[in-house]
């Protein structure tokens, strides 16, 4: 995680604390979830067995940093079109907000609503911000066996680097069941 201009010492301390909370998940079974996507369809983590999953938690879709991150992710065809790893974005927004955002930006990827119970999936992954009622910017790479292989949490307002995802992808592709 590279420092960004404009972040306070408190922001960086919070990010370090969140990163420490996310690391114990690495090497452990990923917390299960059942969430609705922007089209109202139920998506479960178990539905991805045998395929790696990159979970990308965002605070709210209609914010500048989130919009920029998702637009960049949409443009990263190598990440979105892989048969071995599926990208799923999770936000505490309602499905209606996520549908409106996806339609406005022609976003084809899956965006899951962690709206109710509010932030339940984000809590399970240790990235829910209780004070602000949103998910912090956490990303988790899960292999086809359902094991978390990599995690990163960024400070508020700091976009994640797509190259970090690309560097971590082999961890999800080389899961034991594929060996």
Characterise the protein shown here.
The chain is an alpha+beta fold and 179 residues long. The protein contains six helices and nine strands, in the order H-E-E-E-H-H-E-H-E-H-E-E-E-E-H. The protein has helices at residues 9-22, 64-75, 77-80, 95-104, 120-124, 162-173, and strands at residues 34-37, 42-44, 52-58, 85-91, 110-113, 128-129, 134-135, 137-142, 148-154. The longest helix is centred in the N-terminal third of the chain and has 14 residues, at 9-22. The N and C termini lie far apart (31 Å).
Radius of gyration: 15 Å
The total count of helices amounts to 6
Strand neighbour order, sheet with most strands: 2-1-5-4-3-8-9
Q: Structural class of the helix and strand makeup?
A: alpha+beta
Low-confidence stretches: none
Compute the number of strand runs.
9
**Quick one: overall form?**
globular
* Terminal Cα span: 31 Å
Instruction: State which percent range the strand residues make up.
Output: 15-25%
| Portion in helices | 25-40%
Mean pLDDT over the full residue set: 85
The largest sheet is: 7 strands, mixed
Strand and helix map with partners:
Elements: H1 9-22, E1 34-37, E2 42-44, E3 52-58, H2 64-75, H3 77-80, E4 85-91, H4 95-104, E5 110-113, H5 120-124, E6 128-129, E7 134-135, E8 137-142, E9 148-154, H6 162-173
Parallel strand pairs: 3-4, 4-5
Antiparallel strand pairs: 1-2, 1-5, 3-8, 6-7, 8-9
Quick rundown:
This protein is of the alpha+beta class. The protein contains six helices and nine strands. The strands form two sheets. Strands 2-1-5-4-3-8-9 form a seven-stranded mixed β-sheet.
């Amino acid at each position: 995680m590279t420092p960004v201009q404009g972040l306070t010492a408190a922001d960086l301390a919070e990010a370090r604390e969140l990163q420490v909370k996310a690391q114990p998940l690495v090497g452990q079974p990923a917390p299960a979830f059942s969430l609705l996507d922007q089209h109202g369809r139920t998506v479960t983590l178990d539905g991805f067995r045998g395929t790696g999953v990159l979970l990308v938690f965002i605070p709210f879709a209609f914010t500048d940093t989130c919009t920029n991150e998702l637009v960049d992710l949409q443009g990263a065809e190598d990440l979105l079109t892989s048969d071995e790893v599926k990208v799923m974005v999770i936000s505490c927004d309602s499905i209606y907000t996520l549908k409106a955002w996806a339609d406005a930006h022609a976003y084809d990827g899956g965006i899951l609503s962690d709206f109710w119970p509010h932030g339940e999936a984000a809590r399970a992954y240790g990235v829910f911000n209780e004070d602000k009622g949103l998910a912090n910017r956490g990303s988790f790479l899960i292999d086809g066996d359902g094991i978390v292989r990599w995690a990163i949490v960024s400070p508020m307002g700091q976009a994640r680097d797509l190259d970090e995802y690309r560097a971590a992808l082999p961890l999800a592709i080389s899961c034991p069941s594929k060996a």
